[in-house]
Design a protein that fits this description.
Largest sheet: 6 strands, antiparallel, barrel
Structural class: mainly beta
Shape: elongated
Number of strands: 11
Strand content: 35-45%
Order of helices and strands: EEEEEEEEEEE
Length: about 140
């Protein structure tokens, strides 16, 4: 996107290759995104760092659930229990969802937001496991 408002990539596989909307897309490092549009010989993939991207996430150590939302460069974990004892570097993986099975790496916690007094939840910033600037090959996971 020339205006950098969306983070979408196009892959050279489509309906002829049995790619379907909402299929998950990964690399060996972790989650890339999900298929949002499919043509016969190509597909568009919404990257997890896009602001429109949301997926269930789990902080592996402690098994705390959250929602990972793209922030254009990283991801923000929202709705983490206030009781969760988060640490910098904690691995975050996918929860069971529409596009991914549980356990695919999303990234590591890079920053923990200060909790507001009386808040029921907390949030954290996640550095993605995938280097989006150097993507060359991806794997599409059928639903």
């Amino acid at each position: 996107d020339p205006e950098a408002t969306q983070h979408i990539i196009t892959i050279d596989r489509g309906t002829r290759d049995r790619i379907a909307r909402d299929d998950g897309v990964v690399t060996a490092d972790g989650v890339v995104g999900r298929v949002i549009e499919v043509e016969p010989i190509s597909s568009k993939v919404l990257l997890v760092i896009d602001a429109a991207s949301k997926l269930p996430a789990v902080v592996q150590r402690g098994r705390w659930w959250a929602i990972a939302v793209g922030t254009q460069t990283r991801l923000k974990l929202q709705y983490i229990s206030q009781d969760a004892k988060l640490h910098l570097g904690d691995m975050v993986v996918t929860g069971e969802g529409r596009s991914f099975h549980a356990g695919t790496p999303i990234g590591r916690i890079a920053q923990i937001a200060a909790a507001n007094a009386g808040a029921l939840d907390q949030s954290a910033v996640v550095e993605p496991a995938v280097s989006f600037g150097s993507l060359s090959r991806v794997l599409v996971l059928a639903k």
